[in-house]
Amino acid sequence: MSGLSAGDAFPEGVSFTYVAPTGELDITACGLPIQYDVSKEASTKRLAIVAVPGAFTPTCQVSHLKSYIENLDKLKAAGVDQVIFIASNDQWVMAAWGKANGIKDDSILFMSDPVAAFSKSIGWVNGDRTKRYALIVDHGKVTYAGVDDVRGSIENSGAEALLAKL
């Protein structure tokens, strides 16, 4: 498969792992991984799925995640039920990234796409890492799919791009 496009059905059998937020911002505290059935959740909700090459990496940290934190209320007001960040990092690194950025609840979930399996299945990878992309999945249908191929760009995958399509 080469990417996803608006109008496509979200694939079946997609799951990620994450560590549930505990309300604490201690990045050294670990929890047990939880399986998140994205396909099931996407069938009944409007999800924003945001893929990044890696937690704590320059563009991902400085501008990409920041765009979602700053626009979270607008995304929720526009009907997004859940914002999910994914990377090929493990679930503990992803949880620490959320905590390091002050996220201590489920307002944004930070999940692992182990070995970039989902991203590979849609062809949006760069080696062993996900490309920078964003999807809006509304009750099982992709309504927006944007990928950034220019290094450092969040033009198609930042929160502003999604808000323009909601």
From TrEMBL:
<dbReference type="GO" id="GO:0005739">
    <property type="term" value="C:mitochondrion"/>
</dbReference>
<dbReference type="GO" id="GO:0005777">
    <property type="term" value="C:peroxisome"/>
</dbReference>
<feature type="active site" description="Cysteine sulfenic acid (-SOH) intermediate">
    <location>
        <position position="60"/>
    </location>
</feature>
<dbReference type="GO" id="GO:0008379">
    <property type="term" value="F:thioredoxin peroxidase activity"/>
</dbReference>
<protein>
    <submittedName>
        <fullName>Redoxin</fullName>
    </submittedName>
</protein>
<comment type="similarity">
    <text>Belongs to the peroxiredoxin family. Prx5 subfamily.</text>
</comment>
<keyword id="KW-0049">Antioxidant</keyword>
<dbReference type="GO" id="GO:0045454">
    <property type="term" value="P:cell redox homeostasis"/>
</dbReference>
<feature type="domain" description="Thioredoxin">
    <location>
        <begin position="4"/>
        <end position="166"/>
    </location>
</feature>
<keyword id="KW-0676">Redox-active center</keyword>
<dbReference type="InterPro" id="IPR037944">
    <property type="entry name" value="PRX5-like"/>
</dbReference>
<dbReference type="GO" id="GO:0034599">
    <property type="term" value="P:cellular response to oxidative stress"/>
</dbReference>
<comment type="function">
    <text>Thiol-specific peroxidase that catalyzes the reduction of hydrogen peroxide and organic hydroperoxides to water and alcohols, respectively. Plays a role in cell protection against oxidative stress by detoxifying peroxides.</text>
</comment>
<keyword id="KW-0560">Oxidoreductase</keyword>
<dbReference type="InterPro" id="IPR013740">
    <property type="entry name" value="Redoxin"/>
</dbReference>
<keyword id="KW-0575">Peroxidase</keyword>
<dbReference type="Pfam" id="PF08534">
    <property type="entry name" value="Redoxin"/>
</dbReference>
<dbReference type="GO" id="GO:0042744">
    <property type="term" value="P:hydrogen peroxide catabolic process"/>
</dbReference>
<dbReference type="InterPro" id="IPR013766">
    <property type="entry name" value="Thioredoxin_domain"/>
</dbReference>
<dbReference type="InterPro" id="IPR036249">
    <property type="entry name" value="Thioredoxin-like_sf"/>
</dbReference>
